[in-house]
Amino acid sequence: MNAHADTLTETIVLELSDVTGVDPLDLPPLYDAVDVDALQQLFDRGDDIEVEFAIAGCEITVRGRDDVTVTPTSGRTPATLGADGEADAARTAFQD
Hints:
96 residues; alpha+beta; 2 helices
C-alpha cells in the first residue's frame, strides 16, 4: 500500500502504477472507468461495500480507503494499448 497517497483516487492510481509498472501520469485516466467523485462519496459514508471496476488490463477492487487490490486480467497494460490510449471497458459492481 502506498503510504503517501492523500485520497482514495491517489491510492488506486499508485497501486495500479505499482502493479503495471507504468508511471501514474502514463496510465489511462481513472475517470474513464469509474466516477471518482461518487466512489469517494461511497467510502466517505463508511458503508461496508465493495466496488470493482476494470482499467488498463487490471481488475480494481476497493473495499475502503486503505483496502485497494489491483489484479492483472491479461498481459495488456497501458504500454500496449492503442496509440490513442484507449482504456479497457469499465465494469462496476456494487456489493453489500
